[in-house]
Every structure is written in C-alpha cells, then in structure tokens.
Amino acid sequence: PETHFGFQNVSEAERREKIYQVFENVAEKYDVMNDSMSLGIHRVWKDILVHKMNPSPGTLLVDVAGGTGDIAFRFLNYVRSVRERQLQQKLRHHQNLSWQEISKSYQEEKSNPLGDSQVVVCDINKEMLKAGKKRAQHLGYSEGLSWVLGNAEELPFDDDKFDVYTIAFGIRNVTRIDLALQEAYRVLKPGGRFLCLEFSHVSNPLLSRLYDLYSFQVIPVLGEVIAGDWKSYQYLVESIRRFPPQEPAMRLFETRQCKPSMSRTFQLVAVCCSARP
Ligand code: SAM
Fold first, then answer.
1. Which residues are part of a known binding site for S-adenosyl-L-methionine?
2. Which of 62, 146, 236, 274 is least surrounded, with the fewest CB atoms within 10 Å of its CB?
3. Ligand 1 pocket: which of 47, 73, 124 to mutate (most atoms within 8 A of CB)
4. How large is the ipTM?
5. Does 74 or 270 have the greater pLDDT score?
6. Burial classification of residue 253, based on how many CB atoms lie within 10 Å of its CB (0-12 exposed, 13-18 middle, 19 or more buried)
7. What domains are there in the chain, each with its CATH number?
8. How confident is the model at residue 7 (pLDDT cuts 50, 70, 90)?
9. What pTM was computed for the model?
C-alpha cells in the first residue's frame, strides 16, 4: 500500500509537523474513533495500565502524549476509590475511634478526596488538549488535573518531579524516542516509575492476516465515514506497522536506568520500569 506522508523520506522537523497535522485533524473525533476502531478494547488496556500503576493517594503523575485525558481520568478515579476504601477500613474499626476522630476523617476525605494526588496531562498538540479539557469539563474532572502543552522530547518540567510517568499509544508518534526516554528519566524522581502502552505486531499468522485486512481495509474507511479523514487514519495504521515487533520494542526501552519488564497480549506491549534507584 501507498506510504503515507508521515513515512516518506522527510526530515525530522517535517515529520513532526505532519504528525501534528494528523492529530490536529482527528482531535475532535478522537474518542469516538478510538472506540469504533478498537471496538472499545482500548478502554480495557488503559484500565490495566492504571491497575498496574496502582497509585496511592499523594502520587504525582505525568501522562505524556496524554491527548484527551483517558489515562488521567482513570488515574483520578482510581486514587479516589483507594481513598474511599481507606476511609471505610478506618470506619470499620470505628470501635477504637472517638466521634471526633471519625468526623475528622470524614472531613479530611471530603475536602481532599484525592489525598493530594495530581496528574499533569502533557501533549504537543493544542487541539488534542482542547478536546481533553472540554471532555474533563463535561465529565466533571477538575481537581488534581492540569493540562500542559509540551514536547515529550523536551519536557517543560523540572528534574525529579514526578512519581510516575505514563505514555499510552504515544511513543510511536514521537520523532526521537531516545530523547523522550532521557526526558522521562530526568523528570522522574529517583525510584519513580515509567509505564508505556503501545501497539506492536501480531505474531499469530492467521490473526496477523485478519489484522492486516482490518487495518488496511476497514480503519481508513471508518476514518473517512466517521471523521471525514482517510489519510490521518492511514497514518495511524502505518505508524503501528512501523513500530518494532515486541522483543526489539522492549529493547528500545532498555537504558542505564531502566531494565524493562514487559507484558504482552495480542498486539500490545506494555512496558514497566523503575527509574534510577
Ligand atoms: N494517550 C492518549 C490515549 O491513549 O488516548 C492519546 C494517544 S494519541 C494516539 C497520540 C498522542 O501523542 C497525540 O495526542 C499527539 O498529539 C501526541 N504526541 C505526538 N508526538 C508528541 C510529542 N513529541 N510530545 C508529546 N505528545 C506527542
């Protein structure tokens, strides 16, 4: 099939610009398209990522290439539910607590349901962030959430700032993955964690044929029908294809700071590493 503009022989700057255009074009329909292209499965993968992260109240997360906030919203829900569970456990043992202590716990929980956790969504694309903010407003997320325009290769954050760094379906769109990893470890606190979700190759030959058919024949058509944009969805399919198979993909993440552990399911690689000790 024809090679899409993102992969023609172009300079890094041009490629970055083309990728910017793709996400600028898809931003408004991004969430609807994600559901229809993956039949909703991306939701399960993102849930798994946040369960793997298992953040405790007080965690500071940066979600890079965070787009319209899917990981951030899940993170906030998760932390809130941990806080609620902690409070319930405390109350279950209320025989040992005075009424003052019980009411203090309630008030603390009410005034700070996230236990000081925060998530920063960082993305290079203004339109994706705009769509994310609109969605956050619509879904009622505001506490503990902020949106920052920034490039994964040159993050606008101080050193040693975050407990966790996530990047979901973003790394394959970054022009210089090596720089993005360097930046990830710079902004992570010592002992912080790096978690990445990305598509890779389907190893089962039969499934791979089916996936080829689906991705080349169906996804651009869905893109055209739902979002009026064939080319951008062709780029998304091709960018997945150009991403290395699972084992070499895992080696991409190996650095001095990170000995990755990888989970693989079907077409997905999930990488999890601890940053500097
Ligand atoms: N993480 C979100 C999700 O899982 O739904 C969005 C993933 S979307 C496929 C890829 C995102 O990567 C887009 O929002 C795009 O703007 C962003 N992106 C691409 N290159 C980037 C870069 N160099 N730095 C930060 N974000 C980037």
1. 68, 123, 151-152
2. 146
3. 124
4. 0.99
5. 74
6. buried
7. 40-80+116-201+243-274 (3.40.50.150)
8. low
9. 0.91
